[in-house]
Amino acid sequence: MKNIFVNTKSVMKLHDGISNINHKLKGVERMLLVTGEPGLGKTEAAIHYAAQNGAIMIRTLQLMTGPWLLREIVKELGAAPERRISDIFDQIVDLQKTKPRTIILDEVDRFAEKTEILETIRDIHDVCRCPIVFIGEEMADKKLMRYRRLYRRFVDVIRFEKLDREGVEQFIKKVSDVKFESEAIDRVLNESGGKISEIITLIHRAEAISRTNPDKPIGVKEIWKG
Amino acid sequence: MERLKIIGEVVLGERGYFTVGKIARETGIPAADVRVVLDRLFRAGLLLRLKIDPQFATLRGRPPAKFLYQKKNKHNFAEKIAPKLKENTALDRAWSVIRNKSRLEGSFTVKDVITLGEVGRENARWFIKNLRRAGVIARRGYREWILVKDPGPKRPYVSKKIQD
């Protein structure tokens, strides 16, 4: 299997979405919501974006409180958090002013019930004018819709979709070391349901089978003979 | 720059007060050059400078201008003399992936670093080897690595010195 990050349609949408919120216009919001089922590569895409563009990533936790989140943001921005919460907030504002960076919050569904945290994030967005990306599960947009003031600030809601036939074919072509027959691609699509994590498992299986004869394209019989 | 580094390393190892003469003796650099460097560090707010009261100078005539120096903040001083690392390099991307993967999913593999960081295989392996030797990461299971100590978002400096 090749070590390549594949830019699927959803990944391209994410990149476009983040570039849309990275602007300097006054009065135009800078928040983005990314939703999708588990296993579609949302977090991987976010880690890839953060590595390439120097964004900061924060994994939200169930027990997280407002001050805890602020401290985490300061740490990720490369400074030691102050003692007072008001000072920490000022620190974030100063750090973002000197070197603006996109903040990516993963698993934001956990904040759906925590008004204090969501309002704090909104404050950071309004004061620092920094782009903030929320990543959540498929129902995250519905959960956050209740907070009208926050939801209004989302410039776009991006849904990570399962790969279609064309997507699966391209993914296999780019990543796999062995060739797949057309029927085998259909079967991979059916078996995986278009989920990247499961497609990768099937490619691994196919590559293990084809080790004895790497030039021969993999068919349905070879993979699913067991 | 080399002079600053040599003097900085000696100053960092000093405890309490020190003089220009003492640093000059320890580094072998002329006192005039040491004085220039210490003066620059003092103006940058990294050193404290105390002038010896003339009443304690027992010599006749004009008392010599003798200063005592002390480090103001060891951490800031160490940062100042540390080598400046380039930013947005392949290793920075690799470090970002290592940190984010470890924090979000608990562990990472060389494959993650190569794929998500878009780093060459040899680069990734060299960086991981040196991080392991520096005690930043440790192996967990087959082909899996975990972050043992998190020095923050800034890429840790791993040099040949750490390897030895």
What key phrases describe this protein's structure?
heterodimer; A: 226 residues; alpha/beta; Rossmann fold; 2 domains; 5-stranded parallel beta sheet; 11 helices; 50% helix; B: 164 residues; mainly alpha; two-stranded antiparallel sheet; 8 helices; elongated
List the helices and strands and how they pair.
The complex is a heterodimer of chains A (226) and B (164).
Chain A: H1 9-21, E1 31-36, H2 42-53, E2 56-59, H3 66-76, H4 85-98, E3 103-106, H5 115-128, E4 132-135, H6 140-144, H7 148-151, E5 154-160, H8 165-175, H9 182-192, H10 196-209, H11 220-223
Chain B: H1 2-13, H2 20-27, H3 31-43, E1 47-51, E2 67-71, H4 74-81, H5 90-105, H6 110-117, H7 121-133, E3 137-139, E4 145-147, H8 160-163
Antiparallel strand pairs in B: 1-2, 3-4
Count of domain modules of chain A = 2
Class of secondary structure makeup of chain B: mainly alpha
Q: Rg of chain A to the nearest angstrom?
A: 21 Å
**CATH topology tier name of the largest domain in chain A:** Rossmann fold
Please name the two chains that share the biggest interface, counting residues whose Cβ lies under 8 Å from a Cβ on the partner chain: A-B, 19 and 21 residues
Largest beta sheet: strand ordering of chain B: 1-2
Strand content of chain A: 5-15%
Ends distance of chain B:
25 Å
Counting DSSP E segments of at least 2 residues, the number of strands of chain B comes to 4
CATH superfamily of the largest domain in chain A: P-loop containing nucleotide triphosphate hydrolases
| CATH architecture call of the largest domain in chain A | 3-Layer(aba) Sandwich
Radius of gyration of chain B: 22 Å
Strands of chain A, total number:
5
* Strand line-up in the sheet with most strands of chain A: 2-3-4-1-5
Quaternary status: heterodimer
Distance from first to last alpha carbon of chain A: 22 Å
- Helical fraction of chain B equals 40-55%
Largest sheet of chain B: 2 strands, antiparallel
Q: Which percent range fits the helix content of chain A?
A: 40-55%
Q: What summary fits the major beta sheet of chain A? A: 5 strands, parallel
In DSSP terms, counting alpha (H) and pi (I) runs of 4 or more, how many helices of chain A?
11
